[in-house]
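Researcher: Here's the sequence for the chain we discussed earlier.
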Amino acid sequence: MKTKYFFEIRNFFFTAVFISFQVLFSNAGLQVDLISISGLKYFKENNLTDPGIAEAALRSLKAKANSALVNKGSYTVTTGRGMQIPPNGNKHEYYSWAPYLHADCSKIRRVKNPMIDCPYKRIDGLFASDLKLLADPKESGNMITDVLALTIYYFLYDDEEYAKKAVDLLNIWFLDKNTGMTPRVEYGQVIRGPGFPDSWVGRVEGILDLRFYVFIPGCVEILGRSKSGGKKFLYDMKIWFRQYADWLIQSKFGTGARNAGNNHATFYIVQLATYLAWTGQDAKASRLITSYMNRQFQEQISSSGEQELESGRTRPFHYQYFNLIALTYIARLSVKIPGTPNLWEAKTKEGATIKTAIDFLVKKGLPKNENSIYFLVPLYAAKQYYGDNDGKYSKILAKILENDSGVDEWWMLWNPLALVDSGPLPKKKITNFKPEQPNNGTDNIPTEDGDINDEINEPEDGGGYTPSLTNDTIEWSSALQYQPNGMTIIYTIIFWTLTWIHLSE
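Model: Thanks. This is the structure I predict for it:
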């Protein structure tokens, strides 16, 4: 006689099969391409032997790829020891500390351990000196940098050895049962102080730590074509990111990030929309972007173009650049995901667009005490979409590129149109490369660099999040609720039919 436990196990098995089919087959249309595979393909065919302005970027990439290849070590979220382990004792959890919070022991008489004995206070823009003690943020950043370099090198030169190393690094960080990371960020940017371990919990800001993970789907798509990767590797990685996307939607930290008003909401949309689209959930990604466009975006840019939620920080230009990287990224996603309104053309409640925000910073000029390299990406994206009839974008691009550090950014390798904006440096003619067109759903989704070389190991607090509208949770819950497509309905019918057959035996 079959027990209820037998049926429960059997039903669980069929449910897992159902979900697996959906993940594996539901992404037949739009291909998410987060390091612009089409751009890399163009560069490989037209610029690899004569890179011109991208020579420094190619040289930098080769050096990093070769360094990563010979590195006998690997990166894992489980390397922490002692106070480096999350308060719940689970080494598989990603763990980081709030970067702008500092121990204030001025009123504490006996201090044995400042991290536990002293309260913490915020000093905006000043990183805590002991952040380097934590392993996970550094390991995570190094993993992404190495994987990106190895993957691009493999794509450009067809060297399987580099693909194998990249696949190994990703397997260790994400998939291996002994070293893999749990797909959530429950202990990101923890506030330290009295009450350890119970009061040491993560924050909404912790999601920002993983903003560079948006590079991984593009790498996985490339590596999935290699001998070392393959379909199972591609499938397993999609499962991990689908689980992470579910956590972003359902967790209290995800809810806080999507209800924020500043760059936390913007980068949250960047991450979640990327992973939804990559795992075959285009309709949900479209609803996510649309809801953001109708809500937070309305408050983010004033009529003058100033981003007031960012400009009040200690580094006003940096944080406005920072938010524009995310805004232009979402805009490029919006014209690629079918049925999504075009964010490039959307207006805030004061009539401003992304172009208004970029023009505001162009008019202000480059700051002397802040790194303007990070302005390159939104500038290129805006120039590509809006055009540059008066030449103001090209002029400021040339000024930024006069700095050598501006021309060794790897993203130049997958953005061919960037090669023509070289200012005083050698120019390389670009032919037969077409920018994306709105909502055709056939090309790959390009991406921005996200400061991959300079800032990938630097924590980013992003500022305190500011909940905006009163019915946020209800509206977002409605926007993200599950809506099955045709294939899902078929899989559901198969699932329940098989279940009914077995239960009736």
